[in-house]
Specification:
The complex is a heterodimer. By secondary structure, chain A is mostly helical. Helices cover about 70% and strands about 0% of the residues of chain A. By secondary structure, chain B is of the alpha/beta class. The chains are: A mainly alpha, B alpha/beta.
Chain lengths: ~300, ~140
C-alpha cells in the first residue's frame, strides 16, 4: 500500500516527494516563470532568490483578521489547500517510484485532491467578508466548473484507452510495457492537448487569471489575506505549478522517475509562460465557452476515438 | 518604521528583498501618480529589487502617499494605513505630500502626510522623477 512504511511515510511526506522537495522546486519554477516573463518584456527580472524572499517576508508579517469574517474558516482553509498539495505530490511521486504500491482508484483520489486548493480559495474568499473576495470566489467557482469538465474527459480517455485501469501505478505499468500513452494514437494526443490547456486554468495563470484579476478585483479571494496565510496561498500556488505538470506527465509520458522528466517539465513550463505572456485575460463567459465547447468537444471526440481503438 | 524592534534578521532580509508597494492618492494632481507608474515600467524594472505593485493594502510593505491630504481623503488615509499588515514603510511622494506645496494653508488641506501617519522617507519634487523615487525607496529600505 502507499502509506504503510511507518517512519518512512513521514520522510516521504515531509522531505522527499512531499513538503520540502515540492516547495523548493515549486518556488524555483515560480522564479523561472518570473524571469522568463521579465525577459519577454525586455526587462532584467528579479534575482534567483526572489520567491524565497517573498515567502520569508510574508512569514514575518502581521496576520490581520478582518472584522466580521468567519475566523475559523478564514485562518484554517489555506492550510487545507496546502496539505492537499503536499499529499498530492507525495502520492504522484510514490506511484512513480513504486508503481506496484499504488491502490485501485488512486487516480480518482488525485483528481479529488486537485480540487482542494481551488476550494480553499473559494472558501477563503467567501469567509473574508470582502465584496471583492466574494466576487473572486464566485469567479473561481465558475472557472472550476469550466476547466474540470474537459480535464475529466481527457483523463477518461486514458482510462478507456488502457482498458479500464484507474490506478496511477497501473497506468504507469501499462505505459512501461506498451510505450508512453501519448504515442498510442490520436485520442491520446487530443487528450494531452486538452490537459495542456487545463494547467493554466487550474493554476489561475495566463489568460485564466480571472479570479485573481489584479487590476479590477485587487487579487480577488486573496484580498484580505496577509502574513503567514498569504504565504501559504502563494506556496500552494507555486507547488501546484510543479505538481500539476508532473501529474500530466506521468499520465501521458511514461514514468517520471527519469532525468528526461526535467526536460519535459521545463518544456511544459515554458509553454505555460508563453501563453501567459501573449494572451490578455479572458472574461469569465469567454473562458466558459472556450473550455466547455471547443475543448470539451475535443475531449469527447478523443473518447470516441479511444473507444474505437485509435 | 513601526514595529521595527520585533523583526528577526530573516524577516528583515525578506522585507529588504521583497518590498511590495501600495499606492494611495490623497488628492494629488495625478502627476506624482503617473511618475510612480513610470517608475514601474520595464525601462526602470523595479522588479529587479523585488518591488511589485499590489492591489490590496493587506499585501503591502510600502505605502506611497501622494497629494495633500484633503478633508475627504483623511479618513481613507487612516483606514488604509490601519489596513496594512505591519511592519510597513510609508513614503510621502511629491512636494504636496511632504509639505503641502502650493496648497499649504488651503481650507481643504489637513496634511502634510506626516501630521497624520508616521512617514519614513520624503521624496520631494513636483513631480519627482522616477530616478528620485527609486533612490527614495533605496533610502527607505536602508532604514529597515
Amino acid at each position: 500500500m502507499l502509506f504503510s512504511h511507518g517512519l518512512m511515510d513521514i520522510f516521504y511526506l515531509v522531505i522527499f516527494p512531499g513538503f520540502i522537495f515540492t516547495m523548493t522546486i515549486g518556488l524555483l519554477s515560480t522564479q523561472i516563470d518570473r524571469k522568463i516573463s521579465a525577459r519577454l518584456q525586455w526587462r532584467v527580472g528579479p534575482p534567483w532568490y526572489q520567491p524565497f524572499a517573498d515567502v520569508v517576508k510574508l512569514l514575518g508579517k502581521e496576520i490581520i483578521i478582518p472584522e466580521g469574517s468567519n475566523k475559523i474558516s478564514f485562518l484554517l482553509i489555506p492550510f487545507v489547500g496546502f496539505a492537499a498539495v503536499i499529499l498530492l505530490s507525495t502520492m504522484i511521486w510514490l506511484a512513480n517510484i513504486y508503481p506496484d504500491s499504488s491502490f485501485v482508484g488512486d487516480l480518482i483520489v488525485i483528481i479529488y485532491l486537485l480540487y482542494l486548493p481551488s476550494i480553499a480559495l473559494i472558501i477563503g474568499g467567501s469567509a473574508s467578508r470582502n465584496p471583492f473576495g466574494a466576487l473572486g470566489a464566485s469567479r473561481e467557482m465558475k472557472l472550476m466548473l469550466a476547466y474540470e469538465l474537459p480535464f475529466l474527459l481527457a483523463t477518461f480517455t486514458i482510462v478507456v484507452k488502457n482498458g479500464g485501469i484507474i490506478s496511477l501505478g497501473g497506468i504507469l505499468n501499462y505505459q512501461a510495457s506498451n510505450g508512453a500513452m501519448i504515442t498510442q494514437g490520436a485520442s491520446c494526443i487530443i487528450a494531452f492537448i486538452v490537459a495542456l490547456f487545463y494547467i493554466p486554468a487550474k493554476l489561475g495563470e495566463g489568460p485564466f487569471d480571472i479570479a485573481e484579476a489584479e487590476t479590477e478585483l485587487a487579487s480577488g479571494p486573496l484580498i484580505e489575506y496577509s502574513g503567514v496565510t498569504l504565504a501559504i496561498f502563494k506556496l500552494t500556488k507555486s507547488m501546484l505549478l510543479f505538481t500539476v505538470p508532473i501529474f500530466i506527465l506521468s499520465l501521458f509520458a511514461k514514468n517520471i522517475w527519469t532525468p528526461w522528466t526535467i526536460l519535459w517539465y521545463l518544456l511544459i513550463l515554458f509553454f505555460i509562460i508563453l501563453i501567459k505572456n501573449t494572451n490578455p485575460r479572458l472574461r469569465i463567459d469567454q473562458a466558459l465557452k472556450l473550455l466547455w465547447f471547443p475543448l470539451s468537444g475535443l475531449s469527447l471526440a478523443g473518447i470516441i476515438l479511444a473507444a474505437v481503438g485509435l | 518604521m513601526s514595529d521595527n524592534h520585533k523583526l528577526t534578521d530573516m524577516s528583515r532580509w525578506g522585507l529588504k528583498k521583497s518590498p511590495w508597494a501600495f499606492h494611495l492618492s490623497t488628492g494629488s494632481c495625478n502627476n506624482c501618480d503617473i511618475e510612480l507608474l513610470d517608475a514601474l515600467t520595464p525601462r526602470f524594472d523595479v522588479e529587479r529589487f523585488g518591488i511589485l505593485l499590489v492591489g490590496s493594502p493587506r499585501h503591502a510593505d510600502i505605502l506611497f502617499v501622494t497629494g495633500i491630504v484633503t478633508v475627504q481623503a483623511l479618513p481613507r488615509l487612516i483606514h488604509v494605513y490601519n489596513q496594512i499588515a505591519k511592519p510597513c514603510l510609508v513614503i510621502a511622494l511629491g512636494t504636496c505630500a511632504c509639505t503641502g506645496g502650493i496648497f499649504d494653508g488651503s481650507y481643504h488641506q489637513i496634511g502634510p502626510v506626516d501630521k497624520i501617519i508616521p512617514v519614513d522617507v520624503y521624496i520631494p519634487g513636483c513631480p519627482p522623477k522616477p530616478e528620485a523615487i527609486i533612490s527614495g525607496v533605496v533610502k527607505a529600505l536602508a532604514k529597515i
